[in-house]
């Protein structure tokens, strides 16, 4: 299933120049191909021997070197657009293709995503040959970007339409529920209504990249200001940062997608960042763990696929209550990984117990028939 998402672009002056130029080149190639095809057709009609092969966008480059500065995929797409116009003409569903005029035609070009050249990162969309352009992402999507069409309005505003390949809505048996506890030792501990518990560690390649990031940070601090080695170290640090960001993003996307694929009701605790951020070492770990981003992704994916997301109140005592008997045994410091209930004697793994309590919470809410609150009140 292909779906389009349109966003406003905010290019820099240099990027604006590139976009305008590529739009112009795409139009030029379209018109030139059309002109040559008409010529070839007329030559053949006049009996000039076998029909010449129509030219390709690349064959124009030696004659019109300015085409080399444009995104070559945009030129290839201009040819495809003309081919489609001719196909419609021959099928009798449209008139003969017309030349594109600078003033009257839609100013746009289309480019394709080859090996991730089109992607979204930190409020910017990356397009081939021009790089990262700031844009307003008013809505999120899930899936693989196939192509991008950049268009310019008469008033000089730019937009990008991303064509995204999306899976059909996954089917899950009604009522499948999962409770998710977020942690530092494991990224997440999940227990579902079949009472199957799964602990999700941060992936190895992410941990490795994070270790590299630490080394790169230390290396930069040791270099003399203004030296060439410092510049090199700075570049390496920036690259490593990007790698960590990409891997974390990838990990969070895959995990949130799987949870939504497998469950109809998802309950996750909302954290108390302010309280936890008081501990500086812990704060660093929380910032890196990407919990906020994970909950955000769960939120929009649940909305998109028609799942119910329950965000437990930050003060819901998921770690304090015994999941076996319901006794609230009071606060437990973060260093307490296991404990035994004073009331019933059940022995608990801290994270598994918390995820079980979150699961129970979801089951209580769903069976009480009090509607489906997005957020649970106190
Ligand atoms: Zn108990």
Q: Percent of residues in beta strands?
A: 15-25%
Alpha-carbon distance between the two ends = 41 Å
**Structural classification:** alpha+beta
Mean pLDDT: 86
Which H/E pattern describes the elements?
EHHEEEEEEEEEHHEHHHEEEH
What strand line-up does the widest sheet have? 2-6-7-1-5-4-3
| Tally of strands | 14
Helix residue percentage: 40-55%
Could you explain how this protein is built, in words?
This protein is an alpha+beta fold and 378 residues long. It folds into two domains: 2-165, no CATH class; 177-201 and 253-368, Nucleotidyltransferase, domain 5. 41% of the residues lie in helices and 20% in strands. It is built from eight helices and 14 strands. It has helices spanning 13-45, 72-91, 204-222, 228-262, 273-277, 280-289, 291-305, 350-368, and strands at residues 2-10, 107-112, 119-121, 124-127, 131-136, 144-152, 158-165, 177-182, 188-192, 197-200, 265-269, 308-312, 338-340, 347-349. The strands form three sheets. Strands 2-6-7-1-5-4-3 form a seven-stranded antiparallel β-sheet. Strands 10-9-8-11-12 form a five-stranded mixed β-sheet. The chain has a two-stranded antiparallel ribbon with strand order 13-14. Strand 9 (188-192) and strand 10 (197-200) form a beta hairpin. Helix 4 (228-262) runs parallel beside helix 7 (291-305). The longest helix is centred in the middle third of the chain and has 35 residues, at 228-262. The model is unreliable at 373-378 (pLDDT under 50). Zinc ion is lined by residues 322, 324-325, 327, 341, 343-344, 346.
């Amino acid at each position: 299933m292909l779906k389009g998402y349109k966003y406003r672009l905010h290019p820099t002056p240099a990027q604006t120049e590139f976009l305008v130029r590529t739009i112009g080149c795409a139009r030029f190639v379209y018109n030139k191909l059309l002109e040559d095809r008409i010529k070839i057709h007329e030559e053949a009609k006049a009996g000039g021997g076998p029909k010449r092969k129509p030219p390709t966008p690349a064959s124009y480059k030696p004659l019109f070197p300015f085409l080399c500065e444009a995104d070559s995929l945009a030129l290839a797409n201009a040819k495809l657009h003309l081919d489609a116009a001719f196909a419609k003409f021959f099928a009798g569903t449209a008139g003969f293709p017309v030349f594109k005029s600078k003033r009257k035609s839609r100013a746009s070009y289309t480019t394709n995503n080859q090996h991730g050249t089109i992607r979204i990162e930190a409020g910017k969309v990356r397009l081939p040959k021009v790089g990262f352009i700031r844009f307003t992402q008013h809505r999120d999507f899930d899936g693989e970007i196939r192509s991008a069409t950049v268009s310019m309005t008469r008033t000089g505003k730019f937009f990008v339409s991303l064509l995204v390949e999306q899976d059909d809505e996954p089917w899950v048996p009604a009522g499948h529920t999962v409770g998710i506890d977020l942690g530092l030792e494991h990224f997440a501990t999940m227990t579902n209504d079949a009472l199957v518990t799964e602990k999700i560690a941060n992936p190895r390649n992410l941990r490795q990249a994070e270790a590299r990031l630490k080394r790169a940070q230390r290396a930069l601090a040791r270099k003399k200001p203004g030296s060439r080695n410092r510049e090199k170290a700075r570049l390496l640090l920036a690259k490593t940062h990007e790698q960590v960001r990409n891997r974390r993003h990838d990990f969070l996307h895959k995990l949130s997608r799987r949870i939504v694929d497998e469950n109809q009701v998802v309950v996750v605790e909302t954290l108390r960042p302010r309280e936890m951020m008081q501990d500086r070492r812990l704060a660093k770990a929380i910032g890196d763990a990407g919990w906020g981003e994970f909950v955000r992704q769960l939120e929009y994916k649940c909305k998109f696929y028609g799942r119910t997301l329950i965000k437990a109140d930050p003060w819901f005592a998921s770690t304090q209550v015994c999941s076996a008997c319901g006794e609230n045994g009071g606060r437990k410091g973060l260093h307490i990984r296991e404990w035994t209930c004073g009331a019933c004697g059940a022995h608990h793994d801290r994270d598994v117990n918390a995820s079980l309590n979150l699961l129970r919470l979801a089951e209580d809410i769903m069976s009480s028939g009090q509607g489906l609150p997005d957020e649970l009140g106190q």
